[in-house]
Amino acid sequence: MADEEQIPFDGKKKTVTKSPKGPPTTHQAEGGEDPHQGAAILESTADKSNSKEDCKPRPFDQDALDFIYVKNRVLPPESGAFDLIVPCHEYKSFAVAATLDRTRLQAKFAYEVLKFATGCMNVRTNGTIHFGVMDSREDTGYVHGEIIGVPVNDKDVYVDALNYIERSFSSDKDHIRQCVRPPRFIEVMDRESPEKRYVVEVDIVPLSSIVKNKVYSVSLPKFNESSNKLEMEKETVYQRVGSKTEPVSEADMKFFRERVKDQSALREKVDNLGGKLTMLMADGKKFIDEDKWFVLVTNKLSPADLSNIDWLLNLNIFCVFDFDPDSKVSGLCSRFLQHHVANMHSLESYEIPTGTTVKDLESRLNLFEHTSWIFPNGRSDFDGDQSPCDEITWFRTKMTLLREPVSLISKKILPKLAFQVIFLLTSAVEKPLLHTFNEFYAVMEGHEDILCICESEETFSKWQAFAEGSCGKDAVDTNSVVGLKMSHVDAILQQVQPVRAGVAKLLPVVSGTCTLDAKQKERMYSLEVISVNHCEDTSTAFIHEEKENIEQQFYRGGRVTWMNFWLADHGHVGEVIERDAYKEVSEILNDNLRSHDAYPVVCININHHPGSGGSTVARQLLWKQRKTLRCAVVKPDQSAEVVAQHAVDLRQFEEKDPQRCLPVLLLIEDSEKEYLEDLRHKLEVAINFKKIQTPCFILLNCRRSHDPERGNKESHHRNVSVTRTLSAEETRKFAAKLDTLKQKYQPECILSFVLMGKGFSEESIQQQVGHILQAIDHESPVTRLMHYVALLNTYVPNSYIPESHCEAFLGLTAHDRFSEKKFVNSLSDQAKRLFLLLRDYKTHIQSVRIVHPLVAEEVLKQLSVNRMTQSQLAMKLLKETTLFKDRFGQDDCRLILRALFTQRLRISKGDERDSLFSPLIEHVRKHEGGPDPAVGLLKKAFERFHGDPFIAQHLARLHIQYEQFEDAKHWAEVAAEKQPYNSFILDTKGQVYKKWFQAKCKAMDNNNVSKTVDSIAGAVGTALKAIECFQECQRADKDDKEHVNNSGYFAEVEVGCRLLKLIQSPPVFSNTVNGHAECMKYLLTDSIPQGISKTWKPFHDRLKTLHKTMQDSLEWISEDLSYFQTEIDADEEETSGGRPEVKVSYPLTWLTETSSEFGKYFSEITFQPGQPFPTNLTPFQKQMIIYQVGGGTITSILTKLTHHSDAVHLLNTILSLYPSNPLRAKLDPKDTVCYISCQISLNCLSPQTSPSMADLQALCEQFPADERNCSTGALFLLTLLFWPDDHDSDTEKEAKYGKVQSAIQGLKKCYQNKMKNVRQRKRLCTHFFLGKEQGLDKFVHRMTLGKTEKSVTEKQKCFSREAWKSPQIAEKLKRVSGWTKDGVVYLAGPKTRTISLLALHASSVPHSNENITFFLGFTFRGPVACNIKRK
User: Fold this and answer.
1) Separation in Å, CA 1308 to CA 1236, 1313, 1419
2) Residues 673-703 as b or e (16 or more Cβ within 10 Å = b)
3) 29, 54, 681, 1427: which could form a disulfide with 1364 (CB 3.0–4.6 Å)?
4) For the purposes of burial, counting CB atoms within 10 Å of the CB of 1248, is it exposed (0-12), middle (13-18) or buried (19 or more)?
5) Interaxial angle between packed helices 965-978 and 983-1006, expressed in degrees from 0 to 180 and rounded to the nearest 10
6) Which residues are CB-contacts of 810 (< 8 A; sequence separation ≥ 6)?
7) pLDDT value of position 1206
């Protein structure tokens, strides 16, 4: 059977080439844009012996406005009355008649139409007569069925010709009018001639309700040329005989009349069964819901049945239970696989392993992406253990296995009323199939969603006898269609499918278009591909029926669909307004496409206010570009790896030269920054192998933001903002559009558009919502539901309540497939205007939200005013048990309801600010007077969500804010008891004591309390408890391999510093000359002063470890900050475990300042610039002064290069505190690291003062020989100082190589331990680069380069690709030679040994084995290759 394809038409010559993998591939010749791009044309592969291609006729009894024929293609042969429903066809060239005058033309046309119509009606068959198609009896220069077309100057001539009906029929004229459709004019595309020609077609539809048992006779008009008059022939009865229309003789009339009765009965049966089938499949509507899932249960199909399954190919089939073991070889599966992708499964495939979930199963089996083909009785073609078996064996081995997939699909995967089970019985029914019905009936708790289609009465009787035992005779009869041939089923159901079967999608290529068949499209399941002829496979009847609903849904507040654009383009509805932002993003896109310096992967950001039309702008761009670029939307919840692979497949599909492929425009909506970077990286890696420098992928990143214009300030070349504020031009467009829409819709029915036209002004929202809510019944369940939905939509972005939950809430417990509008009908007028129904793209679960978030906010205000506070409303919501019961969509619903109380605002998520609590709790705290309402609300939420530890955590944090520390302690302990190893909860517990400690100190200061050993003992104990909690947090973080939480280290040091200040305040340490020295002695030795011996007895051991634990934490923080290039982790995500209570915004500055404070507390001398130090300082005292000056760790020292104007003086001060001969002094490894770091840093700022490279290398010999015992700072310095020089001898190179290689391995292990399994969110910090000078001068600090390249800002602190092009950088840095092998960068070592390097940008590494050059950088993860170039 030929496949349907849509190709462009513009009257210009095109070439059609055969594709070895499928239907013809059409390429438009150069020479102009296609004005009718995407008109539907039916094509199939031509017979090899015939150069003229076959094609299919226009879909029967459909307008198909965009359908055209191609001249010289060939329709199927004329046919007779096959089965009454499948139309018979008759062809007339009409070449001569079309040129006649009006009278003669009309007479000839009416003669042929009415003769054919009478023949069809008398045998009760559908039919179509075609004018402009060659009949074999006519011109032999053409083949039978060849399309030639006829010129039509005036279509009314043909339409008016049917007025002969009044003269040609003596009775039942109205029957003829009802059965004979008006002429349809199908344009014929002629590749050789610009003349416009048509095929004129008339459909005959003799419905049984019209014709009944009638026999029709006709007196045909004929123009007598000899008399030059129109004459009416003798009244004659005609019938279809084979492919001809013949008169019925008087001798045969009696027999014919008896046959008409039989045909009438058959037609009535077919029409009745067809109506029943349509009603059952379309749920009483005119069309089958294209979002509805179908589960098919079937057995062996005959070859004849397999030729009539187009209706199946066009259904949304979720899975098939196929009892034909040969199906994949010769049955339905084999035929299905010719058109679609399907995954073969057994019953065992649906078993859920321990520890996994239903969602894991959905992902593993790809259930929502491809049809799942289940073989309940095995497969004959499979080599594995799935052999078919007899019935007895089946019941013994497979019956119990069947229950799992049936139960999962019907109960846990697909929601009720979102799917239908079809039992298609085409051969003898066996017991396993009957048992399958029982399983579905039991699991689905009824028969209403189960349909049986069966042609054979005998087969059905066996089915019926079995099924009636479960559900009764009436239920079986009601939901069964018996006696229709498969060809009838096919013809009938194609009429009620919104999308026509077999229409091939077209993609643009450089020279025209190519065909993307359904299988290829389905293999790229992570993408919604937008084709050149998108939506043009939609049936005309569906368009006429639904166009206003589609338009109204959009202007009410629904997301724009591709059909909105298509309807506007084809004049069915008005145009979709182009915002100013559309022009901006188009210009950015075009600039990148034209640029010779554009990168292969480009990202353009659209930042938009929620509900401002940002998604519309993005989709409008894809729609407008679909004929020149390959466009697709990334579906939600798809991994970056899969999306990247499918995007590459889309780009290269049907393209021969990868260098000349059209770019792919990918829309990504509301994704995390990490996901976008991951996708970009994977795309870069994928195309790097091709050595392509032109734009290959444009990522259109569309994200909601409460400050969309902020992105524009950072980079207007890559960012476009869409706000709710309209420009003057936009205001004019919206006003004009609103005037047009008001002629069709009430303003309340297009509320979002009305408000958008007024810029969502507060006054207009209040006025419109107030008008809608007039006279609302506040006590009705519908109003309560509206109130709850408004509450959720106001405080939780993208929130909703599933329709099933709403139905339960309103008491609509009886489900009826044929009253889908029961929920809508149950709503008040106000709710109908304010509610918007959404549908999940995967499961098709319907849900409810308010039409716009700002409308929801106003609804919440107006329904609450003078009636209840928002905490009271939320409390009522928590008591609504029906909303928390298990139903489809329950998991997502519970997450949304929980988010109302726990989800905080995050700037990185597009929110206007960071918040301490969820927006609802923030509102309650601010507007409802004190903590009690918020606390009560969270306590109730804690109960409702079964003691959720994270709600307990929020309660602890809330009590902290009001300094209710006993309550805070209680809830923190509750949370920690439920999640004892969660570092974020342990951090909160520590914060309770930290804030409690700070409050106690503040109280003593405010109340002028004398700080004695006794008076501060309580505060000291609280501080030590806080430190203990933060140390627990640190241990939990080390054990957690999925998250990184460094808050425990920062908090421990902060509490420690404040504690050190406090314990030095009692007289024993403050009022004596040597008080500070006594305090140091107490903290650092075994000494315990008499005055504190007893009172502080519980604290002694812990206080004496304070120095070491604080110093260890500072070391840990230093190491942590040394890896990455950041001063503020603005994009830190809130994981399921939470996020740190206190976030250090400028950690490098914090480290320097806190290290200095730490040094002061443990030092008897305060550093004063310009004053000399005493000569008798101990090593410990010197170390503490170094901390004071801002040293002490390698990170704080290196920070001097970028964060201190007096860096040279400070570095010299630090060096003066070390021995003049550090090598002889044998410094501690930590001091050695700091000393060398100072020397290298000082050399970068003041080269003339530095020691030699050899001296520093000699100092490195004091590091432990085993790299496992070295700190990361020591390993970093080893890679730096022992990097081989070109002038080194082979022996020197080999010795250095050994040290460098060992250090690299050590750094790698340290990094792996530090970062665990967490994906890297920040860029590595390259501290130094290898320069062209010698000695220490060869180390070029990153900020030295930054000063030469203005594009590298302080905020970026990492080199963009543009920066590497700077000639100043090329002058300073040394380009190193190496090679790549299998994606890894290598550098030659001594002899035959090599060094493998990490690439700073992995995407720059060729996948092929290449000789390369690069700049060498030094990081705490190891040396890296930067700016890689092929030689």
Assistant:
1) 22, 9, 11
2) eebbbbbbbbbbbbbbebeeeebbbbbbbbb
3) 1427
4) exposed
5) 170
6) 781, 782, 785, 823, 826
7) 83
Cα gap 950→971, rounded to integer Å? 10
With a cut of 90, say whether residue 166 has pLDDT above it: yes
**Residue 1078: partners with Cβ closer than 8 Å, 6 or more residues away:** 1068, 1069, 1072, 1089
> Higher model confidence: residue 1332 or residue 631?
631
- Residue 88: Cβ-neighbour burial (10 angstroms; 0-12, 13-18, 19+): buried
Cβ 419 vs Cβ 408: under 8 Å: no
The residues near 390 (Cβ < 8 Å, ≥ 6 apart) are: none
Cα within 13 Å of Cα(819), Cβ side: 10
Cα 1121 from chain centre: 33
Q: CB under 8 Å to 532, separation ≥6 — which residues?
A: 6, 8, 37, 38, 505, 506, 507, 508, 513, 626, 627
Using DSSP, state whether 1292 is helix, strand or coil: helix
- Tens-digit pLDDT profile for residues 644-684: 999 999 999 998 887 788 999 999 998 888 889 889 988 88
1342, two tokens: 């990153």
Place of tokens 């008087």: 250
**1414, β-bridge pairs:** 1376
pLDDT at 901: 94
How far, in Å, CA of 957 to CA of 951, rounded? 10
Sole residue written with tokens 């967490």: 1318
Tokens of 356: 């996994």
The conformation of residue 1319, written as its DSSP 8-state character, comes to: P
Residue 91 to residue 133: CA distance in whole angstroms = 5
Q: What is the dihedral of CA 699, 700, 705, 707, to 10 degrees?
A: 100
Phi, psi of 877 (to 5 degrees): -60, -45
Sheet architecture: strand order including 719-722: 527-530, 630-634, 664-669, 697-704, 601-608, 719-722
| DSSP secondary structure string for all residues of 937-994 | HHHHHHHHTTS-HHHHHHHHHHHHHTT-HHHHHHHHHHHHHHSTT-HHHHHHHHHHHH
Query: With contact defined as beta carbons under 8 Å apart, do 188 and 197 qualify?
Result: yes
Q: What's the start-to-end Cα distance of the chain, in Å?
A: 55
* H or E element in which residue 1398 lies: strand 1394-1399
550-564, 705-719, 952-966: least confident range? 705-719
**Euclidean distance between CA atoms 248 and 1075, whole angstroms:** 129
Distance, CA of 700 to CA of 633 (rounded, Å): 9
d(CA 760, CA 757): 7
**pTM confidence score:** 0.80
Per the listing, tokens 């089965």 go with 83
Q: Please report, rounded to a whole number, the percentage of residues in the chain having pLDDT higher than 90.
A: 50
Residue 325 in tokens: 């073991």
Task: Mention every residue, 6+ apart, whose C-beta is less than 8 A from residue 976.
Answer: 982, 985, 986, 989
Query: What are the pLDDT digits (tens) for 432-470?
Result: 999 999 999 988 877 778 999 999 888 998 888 888 887
Q: How far is residue 89 from each of residues 126, 243, 972, measured CA to CA in Å?
A: 9, 7, 80
d(CA 1203, CA 513) in angstroms, rounded, equals: 58
Maximum CA extent, the chain: 143
At residue 351, what is the residue type?
Answer: E
Question: Using one digit for the tens of pLDDT, what is the confidence trace for 1085-1115?
Answer: 999 988 898 999 999 999 999 999 999 999 9
> Regarding beta strands 127-131 and 88-92, do their DSSP bridges make them parallel or antiparallel, or are they unpaired?
parallel
Question: Side-chain half-sphere of 59: how many Cα atoms within 13 Å?
Answer: 30
Q: Is the pLDDT of residue 37 over 70?
A: no
H-assigned helices in 496-627: 518-523, 540-556, 562-569, 580-594, 614-625
Residue 1003's DSSP bridge partners are none
Give the whole-angstrom CA distance, residue 92 versus residue 90.
7
User: DSSP assignment, residue 1392?
Assistant: T
Residues 6+ apart with CB under 8 A from 395: 431, 432, 435
